Amino acid sequence: MYDKAADAGLSRRGWNDIYFTNRDGLRLYARHYPAPGSPRRPLVCLAGLTRNARDFHDLAVSLSDPRGHRREVFALDYRGRGQSQFDSNWRNYTLLSEMLDVIDFMTVMGLHDAALIGTSRGGLIALIMAALRPTTMGAVILNDIGPVIEREGLARIIGYVGRIPLPDSWDAAAHLVKTLNEKHFPAVPEQQWEDIARQWFNDENGNPAPSYDPELSKAISVMDGPVPALWPQFSALARLPLMVLRGQHSDILSAATVEEMRRRHPDITTHVVSGQGHAPLLKDAQTMSTINGFLISTDERDQRANPERTGPGIRAYA
């Protein structure tokens, strides 16, 4: 079920809030950056393990700008993240359950043949969707993730989930986020750390608050041993135009894996985000421009192949 009234009109923030109920009865949240009348394929944004829709704000504003690109953008909070309801059973925090959250959202919104951008865990969800629900997507962008996950980076992520202290002010939050990340993100401007902190933490009465269910740490603590390579799932992307973003200092996606992805995929574009690690923040002008150029190229290709269509990614909900 989808609360359509909540998505009526455009708020002054630049997006509309969407609340819907998934197949498990959880109330989930998404942002909608509208672009009325746009013929372009809509973009669905999937965040990382502990992250949420706020991570895509700068990119979504840029792509949906009515004076420029005019592309409809959606960004989803999986169960237990951001403004979505927590799951009472931590064992449901799995890639499969979260993929079903994405499918439920796209079904409710009438989205099909959409472009997907997945950061880290969101990219893994896109890989699984390509294998199980291929018609849901028409183009894919993987943000610092691939079929092989470097063990060192995965261990780092497992080590911090549920263990980051809650700051008592936004200044303290900005300092914490900078301290934890500046080694791998030397290109991030000083003034941007508070913006990033406000992505990491929810706002509760003007103060930082947890932005994900702490029980998520149990779900990932059961991961043990080497992570299996997902090359079979990656092969399901062969029919789609693919872009791979890699942070220059990433400890999750290696340059060697990107080269192997290039060898195996017939229609791949790659981009290295300079001065950033895992995962690129999607805030710098060059990366946003590169993403926009890739998406426009896929739109134009679809129009040439299907000239009778009024536009790529037409959705039933409008």
What does this structure look like?
The chain is an alpha/beta fold and 318 residues long. It contains 10 helices and 10 strands. The chain has helices at residues 57-64, 95-109, 121-132, 151-160, 170-181, 193-200, 216-221, 231-235, 255-264, 285-305, and strands at 16-21, 27-33, 43-46, 73-77, 114-119, 137-143, 202-204, 207-209, 242-247, 268-273. The chain has an 8-stranded mixed β-sheet, sandwiched between helices. Helix 5 crosses helix 6. Mean pLDDT is 91; it is low at 1-9 and 312-318.
What's the short story on this structure?
The protein contains 10 helices and 10 strands.
- The poorly predicted ranges are 1-9, 312-318
Oligomer: single chain
Cα end-to-end separation: 16 Å
Number of helices, where a helix is a run of at least 4 consecutive DSSP H or I residues: 10
